[in-house]
Amino acid sequence: MLKYDIIIIGGGSGGYRSAELLANAGKQVLIIEKEQSIGGVCLNYGCIPTKAYIAVIETIEHIKNAGKLGLDIDYTIKPDMNKILARKDRTVKMLNMGLLKTLNSAGIAIINGIAEFVNEYTIKVNNKTFEADHIIIATGSLDKDIKAVKRDGEFILNSKDMLSLNSIPENLSVIGAGVIGIELAFIFSNLGSKVTIIEYLNSVLPTLNNSVVSSSVEKTLKLSGINVMLNKSVIKADEKGRKIILESGEEIKSDKILVATGRYPIIHKSIKEIGIKMDNNGFIITDKRNRTNINNIYAAGDVTTGPMLAHKAYYDAMIIKNDIIGNGYDKDYTNIPYAIFTVPPVSHAGLTEEICIERGKDYNVKEFSYAHNGRAAAYGARMGFVKMIISKDKQILGITVSGKESDLIIHEVLPLIYNKCKIDAIINTVHIHPTLSEMIAEML
Ligand code: NAI
Asked: Distance from the CA of 84 to the center of ligand 1, in angstroms?
């Protein structure tokens, strides 16, 4: 039996980042991955592929706006889905290869196969057994199905199927106004599909519990011509009639249907058999150091509780690495930032007004419009805002930025929120003029 310091099950964001950090700290690491390619959902079927498509949409936007900037161009935009798909696949492959090279040069062993627990220190894969002092479960998540509309991979699709479409559906219905549904709806609407989003609850992005982000995203969706239907239940999909039928009796023409109603954790039965505890939704319960109820076994990423985000998985990996090398500290998910990658994107970090009220916290709100920023005017990108939540003693509690490059701008404030800094840290910092980032200082 071969022995490693650490065995990691799953080569996605939580798995490969844990492997890199631990190998760099001198540990012998083995990753076991069931797919042929490394990188997990984010790299292969999630964050990266959708961002390759968003780059196409941004380019379409630039072409459409050229006239406003004084560029007279004759154009017809004809998205060629075969070429767009091939470029996305090349991008993913290039990153796959880069990641593999990094892992190889760090001395990390990788085996393809399905890992099974024999006991808390032993894993079986491809009929071989391996032992380790610590095991990290980073097996990720899968798209949920709904009973009324079951995926068939042809008419009814999940997010992975959508990202391998080589044609643009004329009519696309998206069930679920979560982040996955919204990003794919936005992409295909801008490529030419007539898109309807059907959401069961009363707002888009209801699970974020952030009304500022929800209303800003809803505005962007409507501006791009998407029909957003809230408080609606789907009864069934009719493939022959090419439509969706709602409980309200409404029928929506659909050439393809995307089901984006959430994701569930992937748990191999041997994880249950060795007694690892899960919550009612099937997520592995971990403590503040990402340890499961079995002391030497950790869990990272979507398979454990907390936001299902690649950078949260990276954070879990850092918490685990530090705990294993004896330098541990407790995790805190409160300020994990996120962005909704529409064009323009909407980004958020820290507390919202809703949470401050819920917690009885005293706070002030500062708001600033992109319309008052010189660089935004020069870009022709005056739609947007920055909203900051500040405590009575001037600590930055939270920020939402909606508008061009919001996913970049927000990063200036993240270390300040994490380190509980006061706004003076920004006020006393000279910003480059003219930039969009300057808004953060101008508004205070
Ligand atoms: P989600 O849980 O965010 O959204 C699912 C939506 O579907 C909810 O709004 C829910 O109310 C609705 N829904 C559920 N059943 C329904 C039904 N029968 N009919 C109509 N609506 C129904 O899940 P989603 O979008 O699948 O994303 C999974 C995870 O991936 C999320 O935690 C998300 O944060 C993460 N993600 C993050 C991204 C980002 O940060 N940019 C991008 C993509 C995913």
From this structure: 25
Are residues 297 and 244 both part of a single domain?
Answer: no
Taking the C-alpha atoms of residue 372 and residue 443, their distance in angstroms, rounded to an integer, is: 10
268 tagged catalytic: no
Dump pLDDT digits (tens) for 314-348.
999 999 999 999 999 999 999 999 999 999 999 99
CB of residue 209 inside a 6 A radius of ligand 1: no
Instruction: Kindly report the CATH number assigned to the domain that includes residue 133.
Output: 3.50.50.60
Residue identifier of the C-alpha nearest atom 43 of ligand 1: 180
Side by side, which strands form the sheet with 346-350?
338-340, 346-350, 396-402, 385-391, 363-369
Nearest residue CA, atom 38 of ligand 1? 179
Residues 192-232 have pLDDT tens digits of 999 999 999 999 999 999 999 999 999 999 999 999 999 99
186 lines ligand 1 (CB under 6 A): no
179 alpha carbon to ligand 1 midpoint, in Å? 5
Task: List pLDDT tens digits, range 340-364.
Answer: 999 999 999 999 999 999 999 999 9
**Domain coverage including residue 268:** 2-143+264-324
